[in-house]
Amino acid sequence: MKLNTKGSLTAYLLIVGICLLLADWVRAQVFTTLYNFQGGTNAGQPYSGLIFSDNRLYGATTFGGLQEATLGTIFSVNVDGSGFTNIHSFTPLASVDTNALFTNSDGIGPYAALVLSGKTLFGSTIYGGSGDTGVLFRVNTDGSEFTNLHNFPSIPSTGSFSSNTNTDGARPIGGLTLVGNILYGVTEMGGGYGYGTVFAINTDGSNFTNLYNFTGLTDGGQPMNGLVISGVTLYGTTFTGGNTRKDGIVFAINTDGSGFTNLHSFGSTSTDGIIPLGRLISLNNRLYGVTSSGGSANDGTIFALNIDGSDYTNLHNFAATMNATNYEGDGPKGLILSGNTFYGIAGGGGNTGNGTIFVFNLVGGGISNLHNFSAVLNLTNSGGSTPLGGLTFSNNILYGTAQRGGTIGQGTVFSLSFATQLSISASSSEAVLAWPANMAGYTLQSSTNLGKAANWITVSPAPVQNEGRFIVTNSVSSPRMYYRLSQ
């Protein structure tokens, strides 16, 4: 096995005449619980995913902390699960006034994933701050120099979105996007019409700008997912609003706030997905994402559309559940991309109803279940349950968080690692090469030599899928051939 400089997994097998260097069949992946959250002052219930840097994972919890058991934390942990550190505990409430404002200096409830630049983490909370509507913050990876970059203004507590207006927006639940020294994000509420905003702010906290106010009508409302940028255009989704059933939209807006466009309104057909969750992915002038509901079984979809809004395609309908269980999972929460392969999590479904990790092949369209989160007893289990944050991929290992489950029911940090996959066997004068079908996006290649002079070419015929494996049959002949799986 060789791990190349781009991090793709390469397994070499040698054929010389009919003499074979055999590789043992190895498990397709290994799931590991890296850390069990303890709740209380030790933090718990992570809602967001992780980011990776220098063999450390960084994330946030919505519960726990050293000062107050319900305000949340920022944490780090080594990729092997050791060295768990509470980087920052959000501070106690400053006051609770007659309008039920829960205010403090640094925010409450970091729901979105963090953003890393060098040794500085950027993030947001959806409550707390001076207006109880959330803050934007930065903190060094060692926990030093926590800075409140921006307090969102308070909004009336009317219960009506259209009445909950302010200047900047409120509750930045979607996470931040860093471009140079500018952070872009969205708020779920507030703004000129009460249905949220798109905003920009410098990384030093200066020049906060409200780029767009959602009306809750055809332009959507309540954006709850982070933005993705391509060129000078930001792309995102909303939870509500649109042209038809008001089940959310995909939108585009320039970084200066101009050119807002409704690219697609969800719910336009009976099989269209509804309620998009998770950040979009931009690839080759196409946008990819998931919906948490809708589709043929109302358990969510994977979708794609061009960046101009044309050619919307439902790529996959998540299967119907029976007693909350199914094969793939239901209610997908987001995707990450590696090569032509999407990895994602579903908050429910699987064989226990507690969620799955799945893989979707963009080229072939096939989906496979990589892991079922185990059943819970008194809210506890061995690996966590209800994964709601996104995944992080590094060195052929997926990392993520589960909001619940674990040893005391307060969630976990987990990994899913991929081992050497390629096997070879002899059949008369033929070599039969095989690898798991859930390794979507890998290509079988061959070369007559190794090293810098190697000329790797794609093997033909194309693989066929049978009983959970991709299989290729080649004749054994001179010269000797080396085979590898490459992504």
What does this structure look like?
It is a single chain. By secondary structure, the chain is mainly β. Helices cover 0% and strands 43% of the residues. The chain has no helices and 41 strands. Strands 4-3-41-37-38 form a five-stranded antiparallel β-sheet, with no helix packed on it. It has a four-stranded antiparallel β-sheet with strand order 5-34-33-32, with no helix packed on it. It has a four-stranded antiparallel β-sheet with strand order 6-7-8-9, with no helix packed on it. Strand 26 (301-306) and strand 27 (313-317) form a beta hairpin. The protein is globular. Mean pLDDT is 86; it is low at 1-12 and 14-27.
How would you state the average pLDDT, rounded?
86
- Structural class, please? mainly beta
Q: What fraction of the residues are assigned to beta strands by DSSP?
A: 35-45%
Number of helical elements: 0
How much helix, percentage-wise, in residues? Answer: under 10%
The radius of gyration computed from the alpha-carbon positions, rounded to a whole number of angstroms, is 24 Å
Distance between the termini: 14 Å
Strand order of the largest sheet: 4-3-41-37-38
Biggest sheet: strands, sense, closure? 5 strands, antiparallel
Low-confidence stretches: 1-12, 14-27
For the secondary structure, the number of strands is 41
The outline comes out as globular
Summary?
It is built from no helices and 41 strands. With 487 residues, the protein is mainly β.
